[in-house]
Amino acid sequence: MRDPEATLRQHALPVTAQRLAVLRAVSRHPHATADDLTASVCGELGTISRQSVYNVLNVLTEKGIIRRIQPADSPARYEDRIGDNHHHLVCRSCGRTEDVCCAVGEAPCLKAHSHHGFKIDEAEVIYWGTCPACQKKKRS
Amino acid sequence: MRDPEATLRQHALPVTAQRLAVLRAVSRHPHATADDLTASVCGELGTISRQSVYNVLNVLTEKGIIRRIQPADSPARYEDRIGDNHHHLVCRSCGRTEDVCCAVGEAPCLKAHSHHGFKIDEAEVIYWGTCPACQKKKRS
DNA sequence: CTAACTTTTTGACAAAGTCCAAAACTAGGT
DNA sequence: ACCTAGTTTTGGACTTTGTCAAAAAGTTAG
């Protein structure tokens, strides 16, 4: 995220302290939840309402400025890095989330021929596993 | 699902009317939600508690008798068809869910080399799109 | 600087599940 | 068939994540 303020203006969004702070927080904490981001923003602004966090996240997501990912058994997470078709690797036990470049070149999985008459617009891949820390914890 | 009762016994689970009914309901309605299943079971047994539906679905899922899928913006859905690594195609507007055989042969996407030290055990793929009915609705 | 329009805030509400304790049921041994 | 021990089922309260709505505050164009 180069310049949060410019980004907002480019999308015809009024610039507010809350939006700038949320945008910076998403940038600083990839894959953070709304709750994580609220905490981070509070550190910067002192306070922000829960609703505002959701408002901002929703509008930024609609405009395509950030991306929302919603793995099973986890609240929604947000990220900055968009437009490069990467996927995610999620720890089943602690929820730690990492980016994974599309494994087999360019969007190989996307090539689902139109099934059942659906118009497919995205292939989402989530790799499930156990992160190093949780592997260690389980062994002990 | 050949014989629900035998299936339960094979997994050392006491056979109860609720379990049989839920198991049959999952079989009859692939990709149904807990709510859908509750309605279906009520048609068969007259009544069942919400908690029991969750209890049964959880135990069956743990035993690997059924599979739970949790697409974004949808309550959990359950299915009968397990062990064949198939994926799902979900309609963004109505939630309709269809099975999709793994597009490129055998688990091609699963070949994410161990990233970040994670021990990967599953690759989940969800294709997002618009089902025929919703395409028609949108055009009108 | 003002006016029009958005955002932010606050508080109530909703959906999907889980937690807990009491009542009912299942399965195994007599 | 009947007990008994151990599970399940039930009902109700509670939690989490998020949305709705109306009033107050802020932003931007003129």
Provide the fold topology:
The structure is a homodimer of 140-residue chains.
Chain A (H helix, E strand, L loop, with lengths): L3 H7 L6 H12 L3 E2 H12 L4 H13 L4 E3 L7 E3 L7 E5 L5 E4 L18 E12 L1 H8 L1
Parallel strand pairs in A: 4-6
Antiparallel strand pairs in A: 1-3, 2-3, 4-5
Helix pairs in contact in A: 2-3, 2-4, 3-4
Chain A binds a DNA duplex (30 and 30 nucleotides) through helix 2 and helix 4.
Structure characterization notes:
- The structure is a homodimer of 140-residue chains.
- The first copy, chain A, is an alpha+beta fold and 140 residues long.
- Chain A has two domains: 4-69, Winged helix-like DNA-binding domain superfamily/Winged helix DNA-binding domain (Arc Repressor Mutant, subunit A, Orthogonal Bundle); 84-139, Dna Ligase, domain 1 (2-Layer Sandwich).
- The first copy, chain A, is built from five helices and six strands; from the N terminus they run ααβααβββββα.
- Chain A has a three-stranded antiparallel β-sheet. A three-stranded mixed β-sheet of chain A has the order 5-4-6.
- In chain A, strand 2 (67-69) and strand 3 (77-79) form a beta hairpin.
- In chain A, helix 2 (17-28) crosses helix 3.
- Chain A is globular and about 45 Å long.
- The first copy, chain A, starts with a helix and ends with a helix.
- At the A-B interface, strand 6 of A face strand 6 of B.
- Strand 6 of chain A pairs antiparallel with strand 6 of chain B.
- Chain A binds a DNA duplex (30 and 30 nucleotides) through residues 13-19, 33-35, 48-52, 54-56, 75-76.
